[in-house]
Amino acid sequence: MSAMRGLQPWRWIGVPMLQALVATVLFGVPLMAFGLQIPQPIFPMALAFAWAVIRPSILAPFAVLLLGLFLDVFWGGPLGLWALCLLIAYGVAFAGRSMMAGQSRLILCGWYGLATATAMVAGYLFVLLDSRSAPGPVAIAWQFVATIVLYPFSQRLIDLFEDADVRFR
Amino acid sequence: MSLRDNPLGELKVPLAWGGAVALIVAVIAAAALLLSDRRETFKAEAYGVSRKASDTVLAPVGDVLSTPGRWIGTGVGYVGDYFGAASENHDLKVQLKQMRAWRDEAIALRSENARFRTLLGLKTDPPIPMVAARIVTDSHGPFADTRLANSGSEHGVKVGNPVMSENGLVGRVIGVTDGASRILLLTDIASRTPVMIDRTNARAILTGDGGPNPRLDYLRGRDPIREGDRVLTSGDGGVLPRGLPVGVAVKGLDGRWRVVLASDRAPIDYVQIMLFQDFTQVVNLKEVSQTPTPPPTPGPGIKPVEPEAAPAGPKTDAIGAAIAKTPAPAAQAAPTPPAAKPPLAKLPVAKLPTTPGAKPQGKPDASKPTAAKPDAKADGAKAASKPTAPKSDAAKPAAGPAKPKPKTPPATDGGAA
User: What residues of chain B, 387 to 416, have a C-beta less than 8 Å from chain A?
Assistant: First the structure.
């Protein structure tokens, strides 16, 4: 039972969720440095990837849904857009977690990039259908780069909790 | 206790399936929310209770979090002003010399304009009241470009109100709650703004795409735009006032015309929300809707059926008479091509008037015939051909001292200039 005790939901879902929310709010402060706005990475992307890799869970998809809805409300975008995109990224990582098992960090980083890219492409298509106008690819590329940089946070979370539940080693 | 003895150890496969089912349920919920979202509409109720509640909470939080940034910005600005005072003073003197010439010309034009208005009997817009607000949160992603301002319904802000910075148009309000307003920026993917090219009066729709420079769609006419042309709001559709500075036209790397926004010249930390009411809000819709619709024209050999109660009979006749009095469509459909204005691209956009209420809604185009005067006996014709400027109380803007400007030209020095 000690393995189960090591993977309390509030530890691997609750606390990182709060941290992502705080980071998103902090990066939403209107600041300009040298005429440039600070980048706005998608912090919940790191969590969506890590949660899918750590272990299957019933709570994690709904936590991803909540995080996405928060992004939509906070950023003023279409409600459900980021929720859906993050869930797609979660689904990509979830589907490929058996292939990721035992792989190096570089491969995991590649999977993280793939999940992020899938989410961005999905967002592009959803917005294209919703507003009948194509979003600028440069803006998407910038946000993709800003989100890819967050991979170490995702890796840190995986390292902390990957072996916490022996059933899913 | 070993893993084999653990009763939960056998739950590996069910948990994996459970996770997959949870994922599908969450995806369906998110898709349903996305399909039902209508954030870009002008309906206040489309914004939703959840957004209003979150904005109410986020506005003070963002205000507190952005305070250190504002302090740092003020400090850096103070230091920069101190060290750059001499060179700035030199630049300002040069600008002042140039502006004096423009001031004299502006005074002369203002006086001339006022006389033309008096002669033509034009009704000018009343001054638009404004509300100052501070930006407290910011999002500039590819799929959403909005800002949250700390002024809301308590100051009379409504959905659709235009938002200006000191340099130009920023966007419009898409959601209002007590103490906060959500502003949809011109760069947002859902933003569509009717604009015109100042030099040629060519119309276009400014379409945001998530990037810093929104593109100009539906440009019409031969050579309607050049690099450096100023772009202003056209006022078409009555959603925005006419003449608000938007930016400068540039050719994008993708070969499309784009606009370098005037509001991007400085950080957008303080904005002015214009309590502008569009035409549909200002006009007396009740009076307009009471105008009877004329019956369809009967074909040859068909005897029209007289309605039992036909109170609108004489009115429709009067409408027909009023329509008959209007000049031939050929004369109307022959607008004079707009005279090419001198290129003003080098002028800073910030020098444009930021009080569009002082500008007439439409240009006094001599080529267009004035509306035909209705027959004095026909009430229906009166309603049909009534000028759009409202007279009743319902027609006045609700917030602000909407006093029309005096028609007599002001006695200024420019009259002699």
Answer: none
| Confidence check: pLDDT of B406 > 60 | no
Contact between A119 and A84 (Cβ < 8 Å): no
Give the tokens for residue B292. 């009877």
Find the CB nearest A81 among B8, B143, B207: B143
Give the per-residue pLDDT at B252.
86
Domain residue ranges in chain B: 127-286+341-401
pLDDT > 90 fraction of chain A, expressed in percent and rounded:
59
Q: CA-CA distance, B140 to A143, in Å (whole number)?
A: 9
Q: How far is CA A96 from CA A87, A107, B369, in A?
A: 14, 12, 71
Q: What is the pTM of this model?
A: 0.69
Distances (CA, A) of B375 to B318, B320, B327, B384: 7, 10, 15, 11
Which pair of structure tokens corresponds to residue A143? 């946000």
Contact A139 B209 (CB under 8 A): yes
Kindly provide the residue ranges of all beta strands, DSSP E only, lying in B56-164, ordered along the sequence. 130-140, 145-149, 162-164
pLDDT at B241 over 80: yes
B45: left (phi over 0), alpha (psi -120 to 50) or beta: alpha
In whole angstroms, give the CA distance from residue B95 to residue B77: 21
Q: Which of residues 176-195 of B touch A (CB under 8 A)?
A: 182, 184, 189-190
Q: In which band, very low, low, confident or very high, does the pLDDT at B8 lie, cut at 50, 70 and 90?
A: low
Q: Does domain B127-286+341-401 have CATH number 3.90.1150.30?
A: no
Q: What is the mean pLDDT of residues B238-261?
A: 90
Question: Cα(B235)–Cα(B242) distance, rounded to whole angstroms?
Answer: 4
Contact B209, B218 (CB under 8 A): no
Separation in Å, CA of B19 to nearest CA in chain A: 4
Between B378 and B112, the more confident residue is: B112
